[in-house]
Design a protein that fits this description.
326 residues, single chain, 14 helices, mainly alpha, globular, disordered C terminus
Length: 326
């Protein structure tokens, strides 16, 4: 089997796992607060995350070299987690994914002021088309905009912001810092909120929380394997398969059926996102940390970023070069 075909299939599996993860979040959201779901998700994911991070055995500390950017990224990831989980629990799954797929468009826009990138006519047109797609999905005026819609938009924006910050400071910060800080912050902040919203977990629901952590871990491993097997330009578009899973799960489990505006808007958003992915792959916008490797999944701070592990090889080479210069 060709490496790209194998990478694409592994990626499809990873996004099927992540979609199932969101289904379990939606199930729990009918009974429990978003803050509680996020808290237990990150708490149960910590042991596995710690084992993965133990691979990093270099002699260094966990103090960030760019503390303000790391703090901003940590906050943005936490906001993504809360708003993303809330949107999943309140919106039809297909509609949630259609909105969250606007993240690549927002990354492109944020890259202009934060990274100094230039957006040409083609990419600008793709961004505009994608934003039109978002408006089609939201259809303001004809349908009431809910807190779930607002939360999904905020999640897309803050996830895009965190990805752009990684591209900005990723050459200076250790992967372990960028990976671990959002998880630790989630434990403390959500833990402080927990006493005000806590509802005792039944045995089945505690098992569901555990399943969330397992699915996130398995999905992350599959994403890493997919990018190491196939080319990013082939693997990255597989993320859009989540809209298929959302439709299937929504119809079978929640009685949801995507309406025409959602389907039309999602099609426009996906087409524009794919166009940007292809343009950036061809033009190599960032040769050190390809943006394609940041578009695997919106980061919630409840599990580890796949791209953090994809960065390790260049990061090691950079350290070796620095030590050689000294």
């Amino acid at each position: 089997m060709h490496a790209n075909t194998k990478g694409a299939l592994i990626a499809l599996l990873s996004f099927a796992l992540f979609s199932t993860h969101d289904v379990v979040v939606k199930y729990l959201g009918a009974t429990y607060s978003t803050f509680q779901i996020v808290f237990f998700s990150v708490l149960l994911g910590f042991p596995v995350a710690t084992l993965m991070l133990m691979h990093d055995n270099r002699d260094a500390n966990l103090r960030p070299r760019r503390p303000y950017w790391v703090a901003l990224r940590t906050v943005s990831v936490m906001v993504t987690g809360v708003t993303g989980f809330f949107a999943v629990t309140t919106l039809p799954l297909a509609q949630f994914y259609a909105i969250i797929f606007s993240m690549p468009l927002m990354i492109t826009l944020l890259s202009i002021p934060l990274l100094g990138e230039r957006v040409g006519l083609h990419r600008a047109g793709a961004v505009l088309a994608g934003l039109i797609g978002v408006i089609v999905v939201l259809r303001p005026g004809s349908e009431p905009l809910t807190a779930g819609h607002a939360s999904a938009l905020v999640a897309a924006f803050t996830s895009a912001l965190s990805s752009v910050i990684v591209r900005k400071v990723g050459h200076e910060e250790r992967s372990v810092v960028l990976l671990l800080y959002p998880m630790v912050a989630n434990v403390f902040v959500m833990g402080a909120i927990l006493p005000f919203v806590y509802v005792p977990l039944s045995g089945i629901d505690f098992a569901a929380q555990t399943v969330i952590a397992i699915l996130a871990f398995a999905g992350t491993l599959c994403v890493i394997a997919a990018y190491k097997t196939g080319e990013a330009v082939i693997v990255a578009p597989m993320q859009y398969s989540q809209i298929i899973w959302a439709t299937i799960y929504g119809m079978i489990l929640f009685g949801e059926s995507p309406d025409l505006p959602t389907v039309a808007g999602a099609t426009i958003i996906i087409a524009s996102g794919l166009y940007i992915l292809m343009r950036e792959s061809r033009n190599r916008v960032d040769s050190n940390l390809p943006v394609l490797q940041n578009r695997t999944r919106h980061e919630t701070g409840t599990f580890l970023r796949a791209s953090g592990f994809l960065r390790r090889r260049p990061e090691r080479e950079e350290d070796e070069e620095r030590n050689g210069d000294e």
